[in-house]
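**Folding the chain**
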Amino acid sequence: SAQDVAKIISSMCLTHASLSESSINLPTPSSFWPQGADPGGKGKDGQNGGSGSENSTWKPEIFVQALKEVVPGLNWKDVCLALDHQEFLIKDRPGLSLLLSIVKMGVQSSGLGQHFPVECVYQR
């Protein structure tokens, strides 16, 4: 539902800075191969094998694409309205940037236009 998506977005905006810390216990693809046997990379020096900072932030385009596939009829204006809940907090600029990116991509993917739905912000 729109309320669930809004709460997920809120959590993403709050945890963007500590994402790498919160995923420490999660298995990574490199944990399945012994040392030095990285089939996807070109060696231990990290070239073409990915960088540590690559996985340290949310990817809004992937999140929006996944939502589009799982919930194709999602109303993004309802999601924006549902962001008005008690746990909603944006604590820094990167969190705000992530929020705006997700909403803008979501609105564009649903065919509602190219702009942030400002009318949802000025609802009250």
About this structure: The chain has six helices and no strands. The helical segments are 2-15, 19-22, 60-70, 76-82, 93-109, 118-121.
